[in-house]
Amino acid sequence: MTRDGNDPDTVGRYQITDRLASGGTSELFRGVFVGEYGFKKPIAIKRLLPHLANDPSAVEMFLDEARIAARLNHRNIIEVLELGSDAETQYMAMQFVDGIDLLGLARECARTRIRLPAELAALIVREVLDALDYAHNAQDPAGRPLAIVHRDVSPGNVMLSWNGDVKLVDFGRALGTERRHKTKGESLRGKCGYMSPEQVSGGTVDARSDLFQAGVLLAELVMGRPLFGAARELDVLVMVRECNLVMLDACATDFPIDLLAITLRALQRSPDDRWRSAAEFRDALDEWIANTARVTRRELAALLAKIGNASTKYAPTAQGSGALQPMPDDDDAVTMIAGPRIAESAPDAAPPSAPPSAPVEIIETATSRMDASQMLAYLAAEQAEAPQKLPRATTDPFDTRTFENRLDQSIRIAQGTANNDESVLQAAEAAQRAEQPPSGPVVQLRSSKLPFVVVGVLAALGSVAAYLFA
Predict the structure, then answer these.
(1) How many Cβ atoms from other residues are within 10 Å of residue 43's Cβ?
(2) Are 129 and 185 in contact (CB under 8 A)?
(3) DSSP assignment, residue 149?
(4) CA gap 172, 185 in Å, rounded
(5) Which of 198, 244, 183 is nearest to 219 (CA)?
């Protein structure tokens, strides 16, 4: 992004050169600190949106982020240099990283049809876990635990410098003893596809929630597509809550088997079944990397340079070389989605009266915030209206035969209904009876209900197809 006529010339003592991003509560600029004797240092400036400068809740949340980040000094965490205010609003000055975030990298990989090698994906997540291990165990000057939980480990919050450095950013949603702003309920805020099951379900959130999110990052970097992908935010939340890993099954061949086992342990629905700590997860990745490619930040920097060059030179029909691998041919497969963001609106915003219908786009979409109890009630109502809307996780998360059988049955039912073929209808009904519990109802598909059946089946086929090929 570049500056426009409404951007400030200065924020505090920093000169503004570019606008980098803008969100629901803040905006990010590139600036420069100019000192004596020609001294200049690039700085990132995060500024609370001016219209929120007099909102006590928004201000306190902004200050909380700065307080938490100021306690952290680690090579894989963005450093906060100053917290201040000017005539318009509050701001914080931060270390500037010359590079790209993971979401931007994923978009470039999708656009140039290049897949990130699994060993470099593991290296990136390994660095993120090193940052999380430090944050989870951080203490105040008196030796008391700060109890920090990031809660928003997602592609947009992981920066990569062109030199191969990995930085975790944005502690704006973090839990910790330094946080002073308290919400009325345990609100759901963040990116739907990167929440943990306990976040969605309103359960207790601790450091192991961050490990689940890191597992999602690792899975998506290797697959080159979203792990929890659906057209609506509520559908994504249901998939996360149930830990539905059907997409990981579809892409299992992309994973080295040992790396897949490491990833699966991070993606367990119960926190007790995951890695016990970020350090344990990180050490497992270290061992896998040491036994495979032994990649370092130098190789990551080289890959970033190649992808940058490929952004202008790569032809979709060309074959990658070296560490670069061509992406799959279908366009949907190369779409990396950060997931819809639940908006940072006013703290008392009411939940929506109807589920959002707009499709999820690569640019984050937003809905009103809900607290956990509101979201759970909303999800329950959704499932009561359409209990088969999403495939349920099976005992074996990598068994998709049930879903494929249901799709085949739906196709046969649709064909038989359209042709009024009684034998096809009877066969489909028999398959339904065999799959349902003995006490469950069996849908009778007869010609008197053909108009309703056709509409229902076509709608179901559209939903299943959209899910399977997302």
Answers:
(1) 23
(2) no
(3) B
(4) 17
(5) 244
Q: Give the residue among 375, 324, 333, 326 at the shortest CA–CA distance from 351.
A: 375
Q: Does residue 438 share a domain with residue 349?
A: no
Assessment of whether the complete model's pTM goes beyond 0.85: no
Q: Which residues are catalytic, by number? A: 152
**What distances in angstroms separate CA 415 from CA 225, 254, 432, 443, 455, one per listed residue?**
32, 35, 16, 16, 13
Answer yes or no: are the C-beta atoms of 132 and 153 closer than 8 Å: yes
Asked if residue 357 and residue 223 are part of one domain, the reply reads: yes
Query: What end-to-end distance do the CA atoms of the chain give, in Å?
Result: 29
With H, G, I as helix, E, B as strand and everything else as coil, classify residue 362. coil
Report, as an integer, the average pLDDT of 132-150: 93
Element counts in the chain: helices (H) and strands (E) = 14, 16
Structure tokens at 418: 């359209």
Give the CB-side neighbour count of residue 37, counting CA atoms within 13 A: 0
Looking at the structure, tell me whether residues 71 and 105 fall in a common domain. no
Burial of 74 (0-12, 13-18, 19+ CB in 10 A): middle
What range defines the domain where residue 420 resides? 401-468
Flag whether 393 is in a domain.
no
d(CA 30, CA 172): 19
Give tens-digit pLDDT for 278-329.
Answer: 999 999 999 999 999 889 999 999 999 988 776 544 333 222 322 333 334 3
Cα radius of gyration rounded to whole Å, the chain: 24
